[in-house]
Amino acid sequence: IGVFLIPNLIKEIQELIGNIPELSRKVSSSLTDLYLKVVGFLHIDSAQVEREFMETFPGRAELVLSNLLKGITGIGSLLSQLVYIVLVPILTFYFLKDFKRFKGIIFEFIPRERRHAAMFYLWRTNRILGGYIRGQVIVLSIIGFLTGFGLWVLGMPFAILVGVLTGLFSIVPFVGFYMGLAVALLTGFFTPDVMTSMIKIAGVYFGVQVLEAYLISPRILGNRVGLHPVLVIFSVLVFSRFLGIWGLIIGVPTAALIKFVVDELQRHRKWREILVEKRSSDSPNSAG
């Protein structure tokens, strides 16, 4: 796959860089054509629209500038959130990579008689988090492949590049989908029929999004962390409802850890019941 993918990916990147001036020209031309079509369809006097626009421009510019400054503040907050979102899987990866070293440090603060149980719980946590990260890598790869393949089948330009970027963008839940879609829609300007191409591109993206949300992620992540696919979907919905974008990230591994704790509590309860029954059955014999 790499022999086919990498050369074509490099070729598409070079083509896109060389066609940036043409893309800018086509976007400007398409927006102008769209404006003229809307004005013609609504039977609006374009000269009057331009005149009213120039009259109200100062007030509108002040309003836009004010909203833009507010938006910049919001973008700064969003970027800081995105930085944390990207850092979390990276830090988790290094934690899992150097797990033995961290385990030794943690065990120094745990009483000796409890270290065996702590080792078991750490091992299970490591297995769940590692399975989740590996599962996410598989999901992102499938998203990129399906997107690129779908665009390639429809004859869209830069299909491989867009597929790779979509897979990378999807590291950021929800936002990554729209970032990939925006890039893909821009490539639609390189086609003869821009509007038809954009409809096809949107169809591919929403199709892949539905498959990822209700089939790919639940099955792959569920198998990796030990959750039923229905529980995967439910955990994502619940955690995202209360924690927003962070819930999309931590929902599945947190649900898997909760399930593990519940299973362990049930196992200990059953063992206690067995011990109580054994003691009660042994007590008459010992008395006799």
> How confident is the prediction overall: mean pLDDT?
78
Distance between the termini: 76 Å
Tell me which oligomeric state these chains represent: single chain
Radius of gyration: 28 Å
Number of helices: 10
Tell me about the largest β-sheet: none
Helical content stands at over 70%
Listing every helix as H and every strand as E from the N terminus to the C terminus, the arrangement reads HHHHHHHHHH
Number of strands: 0
Strand % is: under 5%
- In terms of structural class, how would the helical and strand content be classed? mainly alpha
Low-confidence stretches: 71-76
| Approximate shape | elongated
Number of domains: 2
Feature tags:
288 residues; mainly alpha; 2 domains
Q: How would you sum up this structure, described in words?
A:
By secondary structure, this protein is mainly α. It has two domains: about 1-45 and about 100-275, no CATH class; about 45-85. About 90% of the residues lie in helices and about 0% in strands. It contains ten helices and no strands. The chain has helices spanning about 1-20, 20-40, 45-95, 100-105, 115-155, 160-170, 175-185, 195-225, 230-245, 245-285. α3 runs antiparallel to α5, α6 packs antiparallel against α7 and α7 runs antiparallel to α8. The longest helix has about 50 residues, at about 45-95. The protein is elongated, with a radius of gyration of 28 Å.
